[in-house]
Amino acid sequence: MANAILTEIKKQPLSFTLPTVGAAGAFAGLFIGTAQGSGLLGIVVGALLLAGLAYVAMEVLGHEKERMFKYGIIALFLVAGYLAGGVPGLVVGGLFGWFFSFFIYWIGEGRYRAKLAPYLTAGQVLWHYSFLVIAGSIFVFLITPILVVMPLSFNAENFFTFTPEMLRFDPEGYSLRHYRNFFTSNEWQSALRNSLMIAPAATILSVSFGTLAAIGLSQPHVPFRRAIMAILISPMIVPLIISAAGMYFFYSRIGLQGTYLGVVLAHAALGIPFVIITVTATLVGFDRSLTRAAANMGANPVTTFFRVQMPLILPGVISGGLFAFITSFDEVVVVLFVGSAKQQTLPWQMFIGLREQISPTILAVATILVGVSICLLTVVELLRRRSERLRGMSPG
Amino acid sequence: MTDATAGAAPGQKKPGKVLAADGRPLKESLNRALRLQKMRALMLIAPLLLFVLLTFIAPIADMLFRSIQNGIVSETLPRTTERLADWDAKTGELPDEAVYEGLYYDLFIAAERKLHTRLGSRLNYEMTGMSSLFRQSGRALDDIGDVYFDQFDDLDKNWDEAEPWAELMGDPAWLTKMQAWKKADGKKMPKFVLADGMDELLPRTAETYAAFAEYTQVDEGKSLVKEEPWVLVHTALYQDLMEKDVTGYTGPQAEMLKAADAAVGGFESITFKEGMQEVDEDWLDHGTWQTIQMYSPEFTNGYFLNAVDMQKTPDGPEFRNENQQIYGLLFKRTMFMSLMITGSCILLGYPVAWLLANLPMRQANLLMILVLLPFWTSLLVRTSAWKVMLQQQGVINDVLVWLGLVNDADRLVMINNQFGTIVAMTHILLPFMILPLYSVMQTIPPTYLRAAKSLGATNWTAFWRVYFPQSVPGIGAGSILVFILSIGYYITPEIVGGTTGTFISNRIAYHISSSLNWGLAAALGTILLAVVLGLYYAYDKIVGIDNVKLG
Questions:
Q1: In this complex, is the C-beta atom of B530 within 8 Å of any C-beta atom belonging to chain A?
Q2: How confident is the model over B342-393, as pLDDT tens digits?
Q3: Cα A217 to Cα A114, A233, B107, B244, B403, distances in angstroms
Q4: With an 8 Å Cβ cutoff, is B251 touching chain A?
Q5: Are residues B343 and B449 in the same domain?
Q6: What structural domains and CATH numbers belong to chain A?
């Protein structure tokens, strides 16, 4: 269905193609023009250039020679870009060339209508694509900050910004020094060790308690179910600063403040809602007659749990565990208050670094953490699909 | 099953009462099974519930308690607060001599135990200058006692010795043990026991010496036969001797005591009021006493009044001056920014969720990764990314300057203000809006829109009258979630908020770690918690906590 052609496409008249492409060219020209000194000149040149190219493509070459034309345009823009702005210009030029070579044919041949219903008016088509552009820019907003961090972490300088060398793609501008710093510095390494000690311990606590409770909660008759649920979910809802304040006061009263145990307990409490939510969600689809069948065949409750129920809800338990792990691994407010300098974790170290803005080592750590989160995301996604498959739902 | 069990019970005697296999009535049997089931479910939940109650709910309760708790004044100044209870602040007169006497005793003991500065900083939250008043008084307090101490010392050098004092005040049996005790033995010091009848003979002296003994033995770990008592004890002795008759006393050091008794009549003396005035003029300030009296009770609403920019006065709570009202401003700002963030999240999240819900599965899943990746990425990574993006030498400014839209000289200020906080937090919380919206939109059949259009609705009407109302639950769920999360955010405003873009939570953190005004932090936290719990309740009513979905 995705590739079906809904509307016959037909070549658009030049009176439509040339102004449209020209307008796009003018828009691009505006930016390049202002960057080079004269916005007005950019607009005029951009509009004329693109309109001319569109004319050539539509009237002279036609779509038999489309491939050749596209390569031609890309090459043209690459050369122009390189002459105007060196290596960064080359990249920008290449991108522009690639886009416009596609755009000219997309407009000129009327391909933009192919996947839309034939009865749409021109305004509706325009709105459709504007909407896609808007949504696309929101996706860009979502993902850009994360993408920007990565190249900056290879910065050879101690700056949080792109240096001219980096923009010239000069190898001199890049280095692994921040990564080296991360792997050799005592502070960062002890922070990493602390994080790797606290997070698994907290995860084990919250998963073991949480799974049991989730199974209990999914029984058909539980008194005060709502109230219990509200209490168990509350660590997720109560603002972290309040949890942190309360724990700081209370744990210093009972001597847990500044100990590993205190931090682990606090993080376990914060991770519990995630375990409860994911495991109960998995248990909703769990077929209760399976446990009855197992009991019928003489299995005791413990065997039933480990041989029948556990394998089926395991995906939910694991993804709950991952949530709990990331909660603890990522947590900084509570550990700032409940922990002491000895329990300094990775996020804590980053927080301090960020507040004082010492070195881009933070960005190297951030890049590594993004890698970690991509792995976790993949695992959770795979587990979710597996669990849906097991429960006979359509795999997403 | 009912029939089978009923049939299995042979020889039914009472018709109408169905019996189970073991002969019990079926109803009872079922009830028992149900009860068992309930118990089993509760047993499974109990460990976690206990765990959460202990590690999470108890700390929260402790915080709530701390926001009204105010024992420090009456604990540190027990005599003063007790005597001050009858004082009427409205008359405009200063408290009488007895109160000053109590203050001197209390403050002396507190200063020895180094508790007076703590009280000073506590009262400083209510009235500036209290902290330095207490600190200075702690240092200068010996002046009053020295008046009497010097005269006793002139009378008999033994009054400045540890051992005669211990003999006079201590129980003989205890004294023998005390004298035999050596630190090197590693045994515990024998606890001080007051000599018989001493608390009637010299009540004040006995009391202060006992306080001294406890402090010396417990806090300092020193021997009472080696440490000479505080000058406070001499003052107490002077007062006792002036009032009481010690001629009947025959115990140890009777000679010395009687000699002193005979001499005290001629001693130069000083009233406590004058003494305290010399220590610090502020002790004759009406406001000082008013504050102490106001905060004498065990519990106070003072922290809460502070948290809403009010203060206690003798005529009841009043608003502070305009220029001192910071918390109202902060609460309003927190509300405003949270609403802005929620609004931006709806604006940005709605199109994305719509696109995701209406694209074919495969493409939607690919795009979903773009939403989930930020969701799974560490909060600090995202915050640092925004710092990199928004700062004046940052990526956005660089691009704008390169494009020539902004002059190099006047780069945009986008960080350390409200704008920075709102942008960064919108990015961070956007997935929390998109995910609930998406799950609601997935359930809206696309045929409805088509039906509306085929009935002649324009695109806009079809969306506004048919699609949008069905997506409102998603907006509600997402908004409350985003609002709850943003209202208590700490890390991001702390890093990108500067001074104008901070939330109430930053103030709470400041009071916990910098100004150490824990009570006020607790009160602010309690108010914030109440708001959040109200929203949580609403969320539960609208969406149901069970329906929260992740990923």
A1: no
A2: 999 999 999 999 999 988 888 888 898 889 888 888 888 898 889 888 888 8
A3: 52, 13, 57, 73, 59
A4: no
A5: yes
A6: 14-119 (no CATH), 186-358 (1.10.3720.10)
